[in-house]
């Protein structure tokens, strides 16, 4: 609550500065974590888009940092490591959003690698023989990790590989959301955030079409998509720490 309130206060001050002086610098940095693009004016449209991005960050801070409900004192090793991997993946998603140039490329590799670990650990926690789910996740995130490493060293990437990996990631996400929907360890809100993160890019692309020349629109709406992913990953981990709903034990029969 303290961190969210502090960010909200800073965001309010930055909006007032933008409206009064026309300086987008503070608001741009608070929402896009970068220096303002040269030539971008403090129009009502730009301020509104940045405010939407800022409100997304504020909601994400609240959802992520408030932590899980009190859970059992002991958790099995696979569940514990899956929670750690999910929190790391949420952190690297944030790092990808704020990191510049070369650091961004390294952050992207770390993010896909963290998700690859999530793929492997999730199947252990979920249980059952789901080779198709494991295959889609390993192909998608493992492939993107390799692509990122090749980009860092300057080696060419075969054409069409990124599309294949993207389809595999999409398939894995759909399968995970379906599995979560049938498992009482994950709440309805967590599944809803996952679905929103899955479909948000489509709606955000459509929302950005009226602003073909506004890079700020694409960047600000991209923040919304990233925050939804972070919230889903964090709640994914939060729910695993909550006590499970166990059916009541039957009353013992009388002698």
Automatic annotation (TrEMBL):
Q: Which domain of life is it from?
A: Bacteria
Which parts of the chain span the membrane according to its record?
28-59, 80-96, 102-123, 135-155, 161-179, 191-211, 217-237
Q: Which UniProt keywords apply?
A: Membrane, Transmembrane, Transmembrane helix
> Does the entry feature the keyword Transmembrane, yes or no?
yes
Annotated protein name in UniProt: DUF4386 family protein
Q: Which organism is it from?
A: Nonomuraea harbinensis
């Amino acid at each position: 609550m303290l961190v969210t309130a502090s960010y909200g206060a800073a965001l309010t001050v930055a909006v007032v500065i933008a409206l009064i002086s026309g300086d987008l610098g503070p608001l741009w940095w608070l929402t896009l974590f970068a220096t303002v693009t040269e030539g971008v004016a403090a129009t009502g449209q730009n301020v509104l888009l940045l405010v939407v991005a800022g409100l997304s960050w504020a909601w994400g801070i609240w959802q992520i940092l408030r932590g899980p409900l009190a859970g059992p004192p002991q958790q099995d090793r696979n569940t514990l490591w899956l929670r750690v991997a999910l929190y790391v993946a949420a952190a690297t998603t944030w790092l990808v959003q704020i990191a510049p140039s070369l650091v961004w490329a390294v952050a992207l590799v770390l993010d896909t690698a963290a998700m690859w670990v999530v793929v492997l650990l999730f199947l252990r926690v979920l249980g059952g023989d789901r080779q198709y789910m494991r295959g889609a996740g390993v192909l998608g995130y493992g492939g993107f990790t390799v692509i990122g490493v090749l980009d860092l060293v300057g080696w060419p990437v075969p054409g069409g590989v990124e599309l294949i990996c993207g389809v595999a990631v999409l398939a894995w996400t759909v399968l995970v959301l379906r599995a979560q929907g049938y498992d009482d360890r994950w709440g309805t809100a967590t599944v809803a955030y996952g679905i929103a993160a899955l479909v948000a890019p489509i709606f955000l692309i459509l929302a950005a079409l009226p602003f073909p020349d506004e890079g700020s629109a694409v960047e600000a709406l991209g923040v919304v998509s990233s925050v939804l992913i972070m919230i889903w990953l964090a709640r994914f981990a939060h729910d695993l720490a909550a006590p499970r709903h166990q059916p009541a034990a039957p009353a013992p029969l009388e002698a």
